[in-house]
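worker-03 picked up job from queue 'complexes'. Input manifest follows; two sequence lines, order preserved.
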Amino acid sequence: MSTLQIDFGHAKPRIVGIDLGTTNSLAAVMDLTGPRILSGIVPSVVSVTESGEVIAGAEAREMLITHPERTVYSVKRLMGRGVGDVQEELKLFPFHVVEGSESVLKLQLGDKVMTPPEVSAYVLRKLKEDAEEVLGAEVTQAVITVPAYFNDAQRQATKDAGRIAGLEVLRLVNEPTAAALAYGLDKRKEGLVAVYDFGGGTFDISILRLHDGIFEVLATNGDTHLGGDDIDNLLLNIALEDIQSEWGEDVSGNAGLVQLLRRAVIQAKEALSFAPAAMIDLEYGPRTYQREIDVQLFNRLIEPIIERTLRPCRNCIKDAAITVEQINETVMVGGSTRIPLVRSAVERLFRKRPHTELNPDEVVALGAAVQAGILGGEVEDKLLLDVTPLSLGIETMGGLMSKLIHRNSTIPASETELFTTAVDGQTNVLIHVLQGERELVKDCRSLARFDLKEIEPMIAGMARIQVRFLIDANGILNVTAKDLRTGKEHSMDVKPSYGLTDDQVEAMILESYDKAEEDFKERQLREARIEADAILGAVDKAKEDEAYQALAEDERSTIDRAINELRLAYHSDDHLLIRDQIEKLNQATMALAEAIMNEAVGKALKGTNVNAQ
Amino acid sequence: MKFYDALGLEPKLALDLDDLKKRFYDRSRQWHPDRFSRANSEEKQRSEEMTSMLNDAFRTLRDPVSRAEYFLRESGLELPKDAPPELLEEVFELNMALEELRGGDESARGQLVSAQERFAAMMGDADASLAGLFAHYDEKPERAMLDQIRATLNRRKYVSNLLRDVEKELNVHSAN
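worker-03 finished. Artifact:
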């Protein structure tokens, strides 16, 4: 069979923009008229059901209450981190970390063990499927946003999550930069813009210069461990203490209750953005707990948290080498910027009323879609020039960090360094790469150790190996080495300090294929077959009706032929063919369906007449 | 000099910043990896190399001090690391005043504030004389002029360190 299919609508595959948030995630796409949100918000929650199925999104969020120990939320806080980094949050999380993993966290969820990138991949897969549903086409490429202050390991982990979910991550974009892109899209905006991005788990500040379609980031700063989650935890602790004194019982070990209470606390927090007071309201079986929180108390509680966002802001202004007065606009992003005290603190610092007209939950995804449009070639007059948030360096003698690429350098940025041997006959050189602003290695973040191996033995100092450190447009480090004596690429082993090796990611991709819910084509096929089953069943039933017997001979044979053709198509793997045959059967049975309908209406009308008399 | 080449410029010490910015933006539009997302890996790599060079070049050349330092290095002149001898006495007195303030003697504050003003003025002078020297050298490239630039840069750097130390100390103590 040779049917030539021309698909006019999708000459190029669509690149989706994804805001992979701490609390919620969202996908958007670039249309002719501008960026558009695809389907709904997906809560960034993943759960393993008792039958071992992994679910993500709103369904998984419900599992937080019923099965907290097999449900993960705020996994973004764990991306690219080691066990030692996250002791504080682990105290609050109901799920467990598997012992014995140093560089990569592993979470025990029911009988499954998953790393944070694998958990995130389930959220991404859900977004991908939702997007495919709306677009009616397979989605394989994406732009994903990350906090501007994410380090190399956190970025790499995000990229890994994309790969595991079956997405080619064409670009990681910084969230505040994406917001600026959405903000400055239609308007002829020029000048300096500060983006204050206070989300569920992270805080970023970026200052950009907008000029003739170029969005140039001058400086960025932030805290990847500061967000609305921290406000929730403050309120939660108050409520837990209250409950202990009221009920005479410490309930902090009851994970289901804690999650229910967390939900109540979040509701109260959100209400406090609009009302002078709100109630934390918990019903747990026969027991209840209620507590009113007024704005004065709330503000007193969160003031230190807001204060922690202001220091990075001041540093960012300084790094951008500008004064506060020069900033033309302040843009607010992230759910936590709905809090009035946050708005007034930002207004005081930047000395102007911040923009709040954009939906702070959607603006990052919309910006990611614009960047997808830039990469896809649909948006030609815009260009982002972003920076690396942290300095990159190597360990030198005495445990000192020697900086090679300074923070706030426009990316891509590169630096080369010449390495040689220190003793005769030395055959390998170890390079320890770090990220951070402090002088001592122990105060910086270890990224990876590179082993320049198989160096030909020679006199000390004779070897000449040039190593190139490149931070690419995603803010991710790439290292290559060249032997200047031979002019050839020099091989090396890479051991990332935190996160997965390439081999581990590959293994996870394979595994995810094994276990993956079917891909887009399979799903289309399954849906077409379900529809075919439905119509075949209906026609079978209709054949028993008197109306069928009343049909002309050739009408009946047309129907039979259509049934047979659909049954044949049913077993092909082409969903379009199945849909064609469904349509034919529909046409063939039109008269029959009408006749049955009339008969039914006739009966019904008789019925009403009887009743009316 | 490769940074000048990257932006299509003649190697000059004095540059028009608006022109520099325009060149940087124009070339970024042309070479940024965003423009090569569907290109083959060779083209992608070239785009990364071009833009990282452009970014380095722009960062170095837009600031007169780092531009002059680059220019000197490329001309085979290393930057000296010793303190300018004419500042020795000044530095000696400054250190005493800093010691006193750290020890809680508030009377040293006035001395430090006036030192702060003096250093700021010296920085301004250095910037002005650099601008003059740049113009001279661009017109008539003489080695002696480069030596003068080198000495001025060294003095400027040293004064800027002094200024930073004074400001830090004044801030720390006003915060308490």
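worker-03 released lock.
Residues 1-10, 609-613 of chain A have pLDDT under 50 and may be disordered.
The radius of gyration of chain A is 30 Å.
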